Amino acid sequence: MLLERTLVRGLACLLATVAAVRAPAANAAESRRPLNVLMIAVDDLRPDIGCYGSRIAKTPHMDRLAARGVVFGHAYCQQAVCSPSRTSLLTGQRPDATRVFDLKTHFRTALPDCVTLPQHFKAHGYHCAALSKLYHRGYEDGRSWSEPHWYPNGKTVDTDPDDWSQQVTAKVGNGVEEYATDTPRAESGKGPACEVSSKADDELPDGFTAAEAVRRIATLAKQDKPFFLAVGFLKPHLPFVAPKKYWDLHDPATIPGPAIDHLPEGAPAFAGHANGELHQYFGIPPGNPISDDVARRLRHGYHACISYTDAQIGRLLDALDQAGIADRTVVVLWGDHGWQLGDHGLWHKHTNFELATRAPLIVAAPGCAAGQTADAPVEFVDVYPTLADACGLPSAAGLAGTSLVPLLRDPQGSVKPVAISQYPRGKGDGTDGPLMGYSIRDDRWRFTAWREDGGVQIVATELYDERNDPAETRNLASDPQFKSVIDRLAKHLPPPGPPSPKAAKAAKSGRKAQPATL
Q: How many CA atoms lie within 13 A of 474 on its CB side?
């Protein structure tokens, strides 16, 4: 009996020793496992989010993500419209390099051999998948993904491996639509700008996408390969369609109007626009300004849609937790640009103003700061090198951005002096010739130089003191006391490049823009 007890004790000690040896090895192996990436792209989302200081936002899930990561308080897109902005983020290149300034140009026309952000991860062993809107619809890129691009209309889109311009579309199931079947339409074919939907979350495209993403996360978590899952949400892009419960979260009487409802004093008229995107929707009266009643309804719908999308984001975060992989997944959330809600008399994006170019960027990464804000200026071209760096991948060659990992570790630091956005204006926008407006944003000032598209001649300038005049009510560019500020910021203007297609076409007319002095 004594011998048996001795043997049992000896065997137990041996097993404990083996377990003790294996535990550190297992922990070490776990720490060496590649990190997953969950990228969440939100269309037309300006920083009206609780973690950005909004007092009226109902965004508990984006706030939950912010509590796990770093909020970039001054992140700027490269051009405030969908395709140019998304292309810059996903290629790591500025619009002057991608040559994407509109909604009808594919980046591979100018950069046929570009290695995109997901393509870089795919080349390093990741399974890369895209759900709903990542690239602008119609300009998908099959090389970026390990499988065809999934959409909530029940179809997938791929591109021919040998000819990126040839799309391959397949039906993979039943999809969903956002409008009710009897919704009236404008001549443009678009329905109402706002609709209180009687549908459930998953009967609308973003809820349908969230359900698919939850299924994908559960499946991908069980695979041996790391994953890069990119999930796009359409709201709060027009039209503002969301289930009634999200409209009920907001009292329209408490949603503030703009601080200024006209262009800044001294700004060139072409710095704004005629709200053409909004006027395409049924029920929006012609002409400007937009009436107070319509404006109040639009603001209500915009915030309802933010809350609807926030709920879907919460489902993705829950899926990571339920799969047990939240602690080894980098989550990055971005809005593709800001949005004007009547500010400066403008609706939607399409400008170089602060509210159009500034957008949310939140990154939660294992081992990095949590619940903090980085206020130094950063750019969307920084996302590509940041994710590669955070996941331990080698840097891709020739990227325009800078890794933000130092700010993920120390949010009080800085990695660059300015952020640069740009926006084109054509002859039909009230100018004498095609222009490209380059906007330089440092920690206090926004300087915009409107330059002949493809040339060196500057025809107009704007300067705003974002610290003391955050509503951008007065253009200070003509005030001599700020000449040194303009001279300093002007050094960051990019060198002239080839003209955009519009500018090249207009140049044949021989019309020239009139110069201005800095």
A: 7
Q: Do residues 359 and 47 touch, judged by C-beta distance below 8 A?
A: yes
Cα 93 to Cα 78: distance, rounded to the nearest angstrom? 9
Catalytic residue chosen out of the listed positions 77, 82, 194, 368 = 82
Q: Is 82 designated active site?
A: yes
Q: Which residue has the tokens 């051999």?
A: 113
Q: Of 145, 140, 112, 141, which Cα lies nearest the Cα of 37?
A: 145
Intervals of CATH 3.40.720.10 along the chain: 34-416
Using alpha carbons, select from 131, 91, 132, 130 the residue that is nearest to residue 108. 91
Measured N-to-C along each axis, helices 82-91 and 383-390 cross at an angle, to the nearest 10 degrees, of: 30
Give the contacts of 324 (CB within 8 A, at least 6 positions apart). 221
Measured over the CA atoms of residue 342, residue 347, residue 352 and residue 355, the dihedral's sign is positive
Query: Which residue, among 51, 36, 423, 466, has the nearest Cα to 221 in the 3D structure?
Result: 36
Give the tokens for residue 201.
Answer: 């979350």
Question: Which uninterrupted H or E stretch holds 176?
Answer: none
Q: Are the beta carbons of 298 and 284 closer than 8 angstroms? A: no
Active-site pick, 120, 136, 237, 250: 136
Task: Report the candidate in 327, 316, 319, 318 with the shortest Cα–Cα distance to residue 30.
Answer: 327
- Treating both helix axes as pointing N-terminal to C-terminal, what angle do 292-323 and 60-68 enclose, rounded to 10 degrees? 50
Cis amide bond preceding 495, omega within 30: no
Task: Give the dihedral sign, CA 234/238/244/247.
Answer: positive
Q: List where CATH 3.30.1120 sits in the chain.
A: 423-507
368 is catalytic: no
At 192, list the tokens: 């109402």
pLDDT 10s per residue in the chain (518 long)?
444 554 445 555 544 554 554 544 444 445 578 999 999 999 999 999 999 999 999 999 999 999 999 999 999 999 999 999 999 999 999 999 999 999 999 999 999 999 999 999 999 999 999 999 999 999 999 999 999 999 999 999 999 988 999 999 999 999 999 998 788 999 899 999 999 999 999 999 999 999 999 999 999 999 999 999 999 999 999 999 999 999 999 999 999 999 999 999 999 999 999 999 999 999 999 999 999 999 999 999 999 999 999 999 999 999 999 999 999 999 999 999 999 999 999 999 999 999 999 999 999 999 999 999 999 999 999 999 999 999 999 989 999 999 999 999 999 999 999 999 999 998 766 677 799 999 999 999 999 999 998 888 999 999 999 999 999 999 999 999 999 999 999 999 999 878 877 666 666 655 554 444 34
Residue located via tokens 């300093």: 488
Fold adopted by 34-416 = Alkaline Phosphatase, subunit A (3.40.720)
Q: Are 95 and 86 in contact (CB under 8 A)?
A: no
* CATH architecture of the domain with range 423-507: 2-Layer Sandwich (3.30)
Closest by Cα among 346, 245, 358 to 298: 346
